[in-house]
Specification:
Strand content: under 5%
Number of strands: 0
Mean pLDDT: 76
Helix content: 55-70%
Oligomer: single chain
Order of helices and strands: HHHHH
Low-confidence stretches: 58-64
Shape: globular
Length: 100
């Protein structure tokens, strides 16, 4: 089990720096959190969603975007039981089909 203080420190650092990660890194981070059975604070998950949304947004300017990383992140979100809004789901679907 991960030390709670260490996890809180990690969450704070992630919230501060989420924008620097690639979509692949973001998908891997979410998968690791799920596999470790950690409960992300809502502020940390919002930072994650915001960073992922920025990387998969309407312009698709980031070379690291891939169908696989979008698919993996969607799978992990489904496994975590997180409910996406219709707008968020549409954004993810657009990101996925962009690479289909």
């Amino acid at each position: 089990c991960m030390d709670q203080n260490l996890f809180r420190a990690w969450c704070a650092a992630f919230e501060r720096d989420a924008g620097v990660y690639s979509t692949r890194d973001l998908a891997d981070i979410l998968e690791a959190v799920y596999m470790l059975q950690l409960q992300l604070p809502s502020s940390t998950f919002e930072a994650w969603k915001s960073a992922f949304k920025a990387k998969t947004g309407p312009y698709f300017e980031y070379a690291e975007n891939s169908r696989m990383s979008v698919r993996n992140a969607m799978w992990v979100i489904a496994m975590m039981g997180v409910r996406l809004s219709q707008e968020e789901f549409n954004m993810w679907a657009a990101a996925f089909t962009r690479f289909a």
